[in-house]
C-alpha cells in the first residue's frame, strides 16, 4: 500500500494528523491489541477494558465509513514486533504516525519500521505543541503552571476580556476548594454511565479470561467508549455538575467516588473528546450565566493549564525524567495498594474505588494515595508503575509528571514548587474518613496515632536539612524546633512500626 496509518489505543480521533490525505484506495489503517501494553505494568482489568473496547468501537466506525483496516485482536508480545510484521505484510511506501503518548512506544515503533520512512506527525489534539512548550521553557530557571496558564489563556483567547482575564483576576481558587462539612454532600447528580453493548461485553469476557489475575475488576464497566458517548458525558457534566465543580473540587466523602468531577479524563486521553470543545463548553456555560466564573475558571485551569503543562514537561524532559529520585526514596510499595486492604479508612476508600472503577479524583490521588507513598518513602518508580496500572485515564505523558513531579517531588521541584505534604488533619478537614477510622489524625505518637501524621513529622525530620532554606516549607519546619529529643524518638519509633508493616 502507499501509507500504513498507525493508530494507537490512545489516538482514537479520525481527524488526527495521521489521517491527513488518507486515500481509501491506496492507504490502510493499522491497529493492534498487543498484550504487552497491558503487562509492561500490571494494568488493571478496568483499564484494559477501557482501551480495548474503545479501540474496537473506533475500528468498527472506520470500517463503516469504508476505510480499509488491518486490525489485530489481542496477540501476545509487543507493538513493535506486530508493526514490523505489518510492514513486511503491506510493504507501505511510508508509515504515518501521530506523535504517541509514551516515550517507550515512540522508540520501539521508530525501530520497528526498519528502512521504511516514518512520518511522525504533530498531535493537534493539544492546545500547546511540544515545540511551543519548549519555547515557553527556554531560559527559565524553573517552570511554573501559573505563567504558562496565563500565556495559554491569552494565546487562545480563553476567558479573556480584552487583554485581561474575565472577572479581573486570573485565579479564583480562593472561592473554590471547600469541604462538605458534617452534613455531607447531600444529593449528587448521578454520573454518566454507559451499559456495555455486545462489543464491550466481548472485551469484558476476553479481559476476564486473559487478564483475570490483573488488579481490580472488569465489571461493572460504564465508561464512554465511543465519541457519541463521550459527547453525552460531556454535556451531562456541563449541565449538571460544572456549576459546583470548583467549590467542591478538593472535597472527599466515603463511598462517593464521583462527586462533582467530570470523569472525562479517559475520554480526553483516548482522544474521543477534544479539549478545545470541552473548554469552549465550560466557557460558554459561564457566558450564558449557567455556572459561576470560579467553577468555569477552576475547570479550564485543569485542562488548558495542568493538562497541557504536564505534557510539555514530559516531552521536554524524557527519558531522563523517569529516573529522578530527588528525595532518595527506596522503599517498596506496600502490597495493600493492590487490594485496598488496610485499616486506614481514607486509603481503603480511595484504593477500593480505584480498583472497582479505575477512577479516583485528583485530591484522592494527590493527598491520599500519593501523599502516603511520599511520606512513607516509596521508590518513585514503583509509585509510577502503580498509577500507570490502575486508572482508566492512565497514559504515561500525563501520569508520570503528575506522579513523579507533583505527587512525589522526585524531580526536586521542577514541576511543583514544593512537596505536597500534610498531616492526617488535612484529610480530616476535607472528608468524613477519620470519623470511622481507628486512628486519630491529631496524634503523631502512640497506638492511635494516624500514620499520615506520624510520617509527616518523620518526613520533616528526615528532610529538614534539604528544605531548611525553602521559602514555602520553612514555616512548616519551624515547628520542629519545639519538638524535644524524646518526642522525636517516639515519632521515629512509630514511623518505624508503620514501615515494618505494623498496619497489617
Ligand atoms: P476533573 O477533576 O473533573 O478535572 C477535569 C479534567 O482536567 C480532567 O478530566 C483532566 O483531563 C484534567 N486534569 C485535572 N487535573 C489534571 C492534572 N493534574 N494533570 C493533567 N490533567 C488534569 N490524569 C490523567 O488524565 N491521567 C493520569 O494517569 C493521571 N495520573 C495522576 C496521578 C497522580 C499521582 C495525580 C496526583 C494526578 C493524576 N492525574 C492524571 C490528574 C487528575 O487526577 C485526573 O486527570 C483527574 O482526577 C481525572 O478525573 P476527572 O476527569 O473527573 O477530572
Ligand atoms: Fe486516614 Fe489518618 Fe484519617 Fe484514618 S485518621 S482516615 S488514616 S487520615
Notes on the protein architecture:
The strands form 2 sheets. This protein has a 5-stranded parallel beta sheet, with helices on both faces. Strands 6-7 form a two-stranded antiparallel ribbon. By secondary structure, the protein is of the alpha/beta class. The protein is globular, with a radius of gyration of 23 Å. The longest helix has 25 residues. It has 20 helices and 7 strands. Flavin-adenine dinucleotide (FAD) binds next to helix 10, helix 12, helix 14 and helix 16.
Set out the fold topology.
Layout: E1 3-6, E2 28-34, H1 36-39, H2 45-64, E3 69-75, H3 79-90, E4 94-98, H4 103-112, E5 118-121, H5 130-137, H6 145-156, E6 160-161, E7 164-165, H7 198-210, H8 227-240, H9 242-245, H10 265-269, H11 275-287, H12 293-317, H13 345-357, H14 362-376, H15 380-390, H16 396-407, H17 424-430, H18 451-467, H19 474-478, H20 485-502
Helix pairs in contact: 2-7, 3-4, 6-12, 8-11, 11-12, 12-16, 13-14, 14-18, 15-16, 18-20
Question: In a nutshell, what does this entry contain?
Answer:
The chain is an alpha/beta fold and 504 residues long. The chain has helices at residues 36-39, 45-64, 79-90, 103-112, 130-137, 145-156, 198-210, 227-240, 242-245, 265-269, 275-287, 293-317, 345-357, 362-376, 380-390, 396-407, 424-430, 451-467, 474-478, 485-502, and strands spanning 3-6, 28-34, 69-75, 94-98, 118-121, 160-161, 164-165. The protein has three domains: 3-121, Rossmann fold; 130-189 and 241-317, Serine Threonine Protein Phosphatase 5, Tetratricopeptide repeat; 335-502, Orthogonal Bundle (DNA Cyclobutane Dipyrimidine Photolyase, subunit A, domain 3), CATH 1.10.579.10.
Amino acid at each position: 500500500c502507499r501509507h500504513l496509518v498507525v493508530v494507537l489505543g490512545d489516538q482514537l480521533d479520525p481527524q488526527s494528523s495521521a489521517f491527513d490525505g488518507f486515500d481509501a484506495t491506496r492507504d490502510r489503517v493499522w491497529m493492534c491489541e498487543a498484550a504487552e501494553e497491558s503487562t509492561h505494568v500490571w494494568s488493571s482489568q478496568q483499564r484494559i477494558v477501557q482501551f480495548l473496547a474503545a479501540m474496537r468501537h473506533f475500528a468498527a466506525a472506520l470500517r463503516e465509513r469504508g476505510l480499509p483496516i488491518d486490525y489485530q485482536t489481542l496477540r501476545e508480545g509487543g507493538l513493535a514486533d506486530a508493526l514490523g510484521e505489518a510492514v513486511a505484510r503491506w510493504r507501505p511506501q511510508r508509515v504515518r504516525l501521530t506523535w504517541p503518548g509514551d516515550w517507550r512506544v515512540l522508540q520501539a515503533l521508530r525501530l520497528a519500521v526498519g528502512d521504511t520512512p516514518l512520518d511522525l506527525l504533530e498531535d493537534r489534539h493539544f492546545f500547546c505543541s511540544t515545540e511551543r512548550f519548549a519555547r515557553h521553557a527556554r531560559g527559565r530557571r524553573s517552570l511554573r503552571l501559573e505563567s504558562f496558564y496565563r500565556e495559554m489563556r491569552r494565546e487562545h483567547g480563553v476567558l479573556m476580556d480584552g487583554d485581561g482575564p474575565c472577572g479581573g483576576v486570573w485565579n479564583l481558587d480562593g472561592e473554590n476548594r471547600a469541604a462538605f462539612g458534617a452534613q455531607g454532600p447531600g444529593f449528587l447528580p448521578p454520573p454518566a454511565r454507559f451499559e456495555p453493548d455486545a462489543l464491550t461485553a466481548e472485551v469484558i469476557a476476553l479481559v476476564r479470561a486473559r487478564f483475570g489475575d490483573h488488579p481490580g475488576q472488569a465489571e461493572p464497566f460504564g465508561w464512554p467508549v465511543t465519541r457519541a458517548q463521550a459527547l453525552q458525558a460531556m454535556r451531562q457534566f456541563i449541565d449538571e455538575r460544572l456549576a459546583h465543580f470548583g467549590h467542591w473540587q478538593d472535597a472527599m466523602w466515603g463511598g462517593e467516588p464521583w462527586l462533582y468531577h467530570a470523569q472525562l479524563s479517559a475520554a480526553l486521553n483516548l482522544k474521543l473528546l477534544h479539549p478545545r470543545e470541552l473548554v469552549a463548553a465550560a466557557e460558554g456555560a459561564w457566558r450564558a450565566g449557567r455556572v459561576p466564573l470560579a467553577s468555569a475558571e477552576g475547570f479550564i485551569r485543569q485542562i488548558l493549564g495542568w493538562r497541557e503543562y504536564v505534557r510539555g514537561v514530559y516531552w521536554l524532559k524524557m527519558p531522563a525524567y523517569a529516573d529522578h529520585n530527588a528525595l532518595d526514596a527506596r522503599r517498596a510499595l506496600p502490597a495493600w495498594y493492590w487490594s485496598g486492604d488496610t485499616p486506614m479508612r481514607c486509603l481503603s476508600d480511595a484504593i477500593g474505588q480505584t480498583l472497582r472503577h479505575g477512577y479516583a479524583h485528583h485530591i484522592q490521588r494527590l493527598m491520599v494515595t500519593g501523599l502516603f507513598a511520599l511520606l512513607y518513602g516509596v521508590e518513585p518508580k514503583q509509585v509510577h508503575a502503580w498509577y500507570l496500572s490502575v486508572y482508566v485515564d492512565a497514559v504515561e505523558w500525563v501520569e508520570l509528571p503528575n506522579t513523579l513531579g507533583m505527587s512525589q517531588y522526585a524531580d526536586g521541584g521542577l514541576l511543583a514548587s514544593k512537596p505536597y505534604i500534610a498531616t492526617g488533619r488535612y484529610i480530616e478537614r476535607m472528608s468524613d474518613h477519620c470519623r470511622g477510622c481507628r486512628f486519630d489524625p491529631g496524634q503523631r505518637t502512640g497506638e492511635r496515632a494516624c500514620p499520615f501524621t506520624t510520617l509527616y513529622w518523620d518526613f520533616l525530620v528526615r528532610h529538614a536539612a534539604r528544605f531548611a532554606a525553602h521559602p514555602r516549607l520553612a514555616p512548616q519546619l519551624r515547628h520542629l524546633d519545639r519538638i524535644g529529643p524524646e518526642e522525636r524518638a517516639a515519632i521515629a519509633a512509630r514511623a518505624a512500626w508503620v514501615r515494618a508493616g505494623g498496619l497489617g
